[in-house]
Amino acid sequence: MAAGPGPGAETSAPALFTFPNRVLFGAGARRSLAAELARLGVARPLVVTDPGLVACGLAGRVADLLDSPQVFTDVQANPTEENVLRAVDRYREAGCDGLVGLGGGSAIDAAKAVRLLATHPGRLADYDLTAGGGDRITAEMPPMAAVPTTAGTGSEAGRGTLIQLPQTGRKTIALSIHLLPSVAICDPELTLGLTPELTAGTGMDALTHCVESYLSPTFHPICDGIAIEGLKSIFRGLEEAVRDGSRLEARSAMMMGALLGGISFHKGLGVVHSLSHALGGEGRVHHGTLNAILLPHALRFNREAAEPRIAELASRVGLGRGGDGAGHLVTLMQIVLARLPLPRRLSELESAGLDRGRIPHYARLAMLDHCHRTNPRACTQADMEDLLDRAW
Asked: How many whole angstroms separate alpha carbon 153 and alpha carbon 144?
């Protein structure tokens, strides 16, 4: 089976491989937070989290592990630059010397953006990947610990921060190896209180990371292997974690799958993420839920350009023995979605603000997103509109 460009393929530059950050993984790992911050020389951290974690008491449980933390809680789902700038002010006013991103991808991404703007001049738009801003990001940033409380985004092992900018009306990414958290503390016990719906949505985000990164034409065999292991871990844990959220073994499998998915997408993602970033830009629809709905349609779209690669992925996870691995993988994604407490069509999300009449607008925003640049099949705006129409 074809496996993407090999090491002997003619390229303009050598392939660049980077490994992620220091990771502490396992039940109870959160109790290492204070020691890790001390190792990093952090005496006065700013804990960046969200109101939901405060309301359920989880933010307090983690903050209580520290001696003198400042806590910033004003991070919304799909964080905005306004959230980040307020947190930067708090960081400076309190004389903080490090950060803890506590929560899902929103809180961890917000903490990364605070790191950036606390030490770099200007606004987030100045560091936008699509405008070459990543080259302006240096290593001169305070230490940061990422403590995920969901098993989905993989932001604890990612080198980007995705923030909604009011001036552009879309999510903008700053991307640099320097944005990797100094340490990731992955404690599956912190996910035990997730609802079935949020477990499913975040889990499908992690699953989509593994699938899209594996199909990316970028040559990175290390990430390919990590994506396969991530998928296997998610398949072991997803349905059980949704069905019985108290099962720590299932929660551990999901947290590992999310971590591996976050590592694998150093290779790049695809059209699913460009579309979900566009649809979720108004902050009212869960990112992982959008990925779940869009993934089967994107696999069909990519099939003509990447059928051998899709079939190989199917084979790696135990499918395709009947000779139609690519078709089996699409079917599997549909079956997984059908078994989860998630909507199956975009039309079911119209009450949350999605509007079928705005498909051309969403498609235009998706074309401005960076993720489809590593999709195995080149996308036009018409393609984006057709994919959205099919998913509606």
From this structure: 17
* Residue 64 DSSP label: T
Q: Are 258 and 206 in contact (CB under 8 A)?
A: yes
Distance CA 262, CA 209 (A): 7
Dump pLDDT digits (tens) for 183-230. Answer: 999 999 999 999 999 999 999 999 999 999 999 999 999 999 999 999
The count of other CB atoms within 10 Å of the CB of residue 66 is: 18
Q: Say which residue the tokens 């009306």 belong to.
A: 169
pTM of the model: 0.92
In our burial notation (b when 16+ CB lie closer than 10 A, e otherwise), range 136-150 reads ebeeebbbbbbbbbb
Give the CA-trace dihedral at 22, 28, 34, 39, to 10 degrees. Answer: -30
The pLDDT assigned to 170 comes to 75
CB within 8 Å of 188: residues ≥ 6 apart: 26, 27, 151, 248, 251, 252, 254, 255
Cα separation, 383 vs 123, whole angstroms: 33
Do 71 and 59 contact (CB within 8 A), yes or no?
A: yes
Which residues, listed in sequence order, are joined to residue 183 by a DSSP beta bridge? 22, 145
Q: How far apart are CA 92 and CA 142, in angstroms?
A: 12
List the structure tokens of 324. 């139609």
Q: What percent of the chain has pLDDT over 70?
A: 93
Sheet strands side by side (includes 98-103)? 22-25, 183-186, 144-148, 98-103, 45-48, 70-72
